Amino acid sequence: MNNKRDYYDVLGVGKGASEDEVRRAFRKLARQYHPDVNQDAGAEARFKEINEAYEVLSDAQKRKAYDQFGHAGVQGFPGGSASGFDTFGFGDIFETFFGYRSSATTKRGPQRGADLRCDLKLTFEEAVFGCEKEIEIPRWETCPSCTGTGAETGTQPTRCPACNGTGEVRRVQQSFFGQIVNVTACSRCQGEGRIILEPCRNCRGDGRVRATRRIKVSIPAGVDDGAQIRLSGEGESGTRGGPAGNLYVVLGVLEHSMFKRQGHDILLDLPLHFVQTTLGDEIEVPVVGGSTAKIKIPPGTQSGKVFRLKDRGVPHLRGGGRGDMQVKVKVVVPTQLTDEQRNLLMHLARSFGIRLARADEKGFFGKAKDALGID
């Protein structure tokens, strides 16, 4: 029993549809169900069915036989049913109607060289003030002997006789759609369009050689961790006369023992004795770059107080000006005291109305334990 659907139903046209109507219906459905553009399950089978229906209904003789005898009427025709689909493939049918090629290639022209990356470590000061570094980069460079042609000095590549310099081979096939052109890369020259009869001894015909170059990199003031510097044309050389790639220098900033960075500001934690913050003081603090700056500490300064030093931070990469330096006070309490110092502090506490329990006195919890008989 034949379970094939009616070809008119497959294309969604009536039995009186004209040749143009059949063609338009086929194109619309082929675009929708072509396996190259539709990855849904069953799209390939649906496309085969559409192609089979069009193969019959687009041919006047086959269509007449189908109208009279149904599917049995076209089985005896050459390439009947879906055999034409299997012969020419998805890509050839799509090329015929929509301008695509199956396995089409073009002559390979100049290709840009690959981009390279280099990781560069900087000290905190180098990132703030900028510097100049020298790096070593291994890369592919144009062969100096053949200047990139791949041919030995005094010789030149010749046009490929197999493809006449086009880099591709065309084969014409006949189908029910008409002529189908199948284009493939030339196997003789591998799509180059030229062959080298005498390869360069230095690069062995590749046109490039491996080399290590020392390159100077100018680091602008104010760069941050993770910043990138692009050096145009310092990547690998291109092939067949193509331009060189770029070199990307990725910066990593080492941590500083005292300073931290927050945007364009530099942060510094300043430890001060509680006597300094209580009575006030004037001190010198270190600044990035080796210099110092004076800060006046008012009496009664609390822990966490921030003093801001204008224009002592990180320079702005774009535009003038610099950030600030933020000095944060951290009050330090001594852990060891002499007897004299302890007595002075006890006297000071009493002057403030604070009664402190001596070390040999039992506090509230000690007295509670004694009352309950707990050791």
Descriptive report:
The protein is 25% helix and 26% strand. The protein is an alpha+beta fold and 375 residues long. Strands 10-11-15-14 form a 4-stranded mixed β-sheet. It has a 3-stranded mixed β-sheet with strand order 1-9-8. Residues 79-106 have low confidence and may be disordered.
Notable traits:
single chain; 375 residues; alpha+beta; four-stranded mixed beta sheet; three-stranded mixed beta sheet; 15 strands; 26% strand
Major beta-sheet overview: 4 strands, mixed
| Quaternary structure classification | single chain
Structural class: alpha+beta
The amount of beta strand, in percent, is 25-35%
Q: Mean pLDDT, rounded to whole units? A: 84
Please report the number of helical segments.
Answer: 9
**Which term fits the overall shape?**
elongated
Rg for CA atoms: 42 Å
The percent range for helix content is: 25-40%
The N- and C-terminal alpha carbons lie at a distance of: 101 Å
Strand order of the largest sheet: 10-11-15-14
Give, in order, the helices and strands.
HHHHHEHEEEEEEEEEEHEEEEHH
Number of strands: 15
Which residue ranges are poorly predicted, with pLDDT under 50 across at least 5 consecutive positions? 79-106
Structure, briefly:
This protein is an alpha+beta fold and 375 residues long. 25% of the residues lie in helices and 26% in strands.
